[in-house]
Structures are given as structure tokens and as C-alpha cells.
Design goal:
By secondary structure, the chain is mainly alpha-helical. The protein has one domain. It is about 65% helix and about 5% strand. The protein is built from 13 helices and three strands, in the order ααααβββααααααααα. Strands 1-3-2 form a three-stranded mixed beta sheet. Helix 11 packs antiparallel against helix 12. The longest helix is centred in the N-terminal third of the chain and has 23 residues. It is globular and about 55 Å long. The chain starts with a helix and ends with a helix.
Amino acid sequence: MKTFLIRFSITLVVLTGLWFAFSRIPVAESLNQMTFGDFNEEKFGELAMEAVLMESKEIKSDSIDHAMNVVVTRLSSGNLFAADKFHIHVVNNNEVNAFALPGNHIVVHTGLIYMCDNPEELAGVLAHEIAHLEKRHVIERMRTEGIITLLEGAVAQGGGATVASAVGELAGLAFSRDQENEADEVGFTFLTNASIRPNGMATLFRKMKNESEVSGYIPEFMSTHPELESRAQNIETKCAGLPNTFVPIMTADEWENFQINVRLAL
């Protein structure tokens, strides 16, 4: 029940943001730019991000942008995606969470950054989210839940409020067990290909497990299936057979300065 209430509250927040967003953007203009015959992911992602940023301030500074670029650039090395393919948004929100949106947007809460003890843990989260995007899980879930059909109908009827409702459904969108497992597996491969120590995924899963036992809340990017402990154990088992050829993303002092700069930018 508590999880349902949290999701319901998040959905209400997103819908409220979208209501204001659509009140500032001519509905006809917005809908005309969203060519849903082929589903314009980029435009939909922009509108969804606008709603998110109306509720949570994006934290930007040269030092923060540089640090996030360092992590994503390292992730892209040895993998078949460019560092600038993804739009990383750090937002001021104390909830330990991160999530992906269409159009290759990834939102990272400051609460998550504060929980990470090193850049490898943050890289594990980003690798997981990039895997969801690269494997098309976000769009698959939107199709499965009927969100894209709802959007297409809204465009046909010229209903901006219905579009807002459809975007709001993303707040409660959970990935399937198979999709979560695949994101773990693919994210793990992204990390090892980039010579990033992958056990950061396992340590963060365990932190989230402990956090969930206290608060009862598990963010969507770690879901409730499969269980966090089994996911951590699976990653540790995979790590056991790997050679120790990993290269740190940044020094401990650089990571500490990054966290300090995030707090100073609030």
C-alpha cells in the first residue's frame, strides 16, 4: 500500500507539472510537433523532461557537468555508443532514484549521488539506465502499458490534457523481471568493456536493500523484481572471475569534490 501511495503521489506531481507545461505551450503546436505515426521519441522526451524540471530544479555548473561527462565518457569507451548520445540531468531531489525517459534522457537525483561512495557506484546506475535505453525497454513498456496508443489517440483528438495524462503514466512504469535482468547483464558488460570496476552495482544494490527495509521505498530503476540481494550476488559471482584490470574513473578527492560541488550548486 505504501508503494502504491508513493507512485500515486509521484504521478500527481508529474501531471501537475505537465498541466502547467501545457498551459505555457500552445497545445496544437505541441501536438503537431509530436508525429506519433512513427512516435516521435525526441519530442515526447522533451515534453516529459519539461514536466520533470518544473517539479525538480536541474543542478548545473561547469564542475558538475565535467564530472558527469567524465563518467559517461568512460562508459562509452569500449562500447558501441557515443558519450554525447545521452542527456544526463542532475536534479535536486533527495529521493535516491534515477530513471530513463524517451529521447535518451536520464534523470539522476541528488539523493542518489549522495548515497554513492565512489564514481563506480554512480557508473553502475548509469550503465543500468543506458542499457534500458539501448535495449528499447522504455518504449517496450510504454507499448505494453498502452501509453503510446493513448498518445496517438490524444493527437488524433487534439487533447493536450490526455497527452499530459499519458506522460504521467511514466511515473509508475515498472520494468519486467526479464528487462531488469537484461539491464543488469548489459550494464555489467558496459562497465567491464570500459574497464570500470563493476562491483559498484552490487554495493549500491545492497545499500538500496538496506534503505528499502527502513523506508519501504525502492526506486523504479532497481524495481522489486528480481530481489535486490539476488541481483547483488549475481553481480559478485560474475566479478569473481574477472582479471583485476580496472582503471579508476576519478580519484577519491575528485569524487568528494564532485559531491561538494553538487551541494554548493543547490
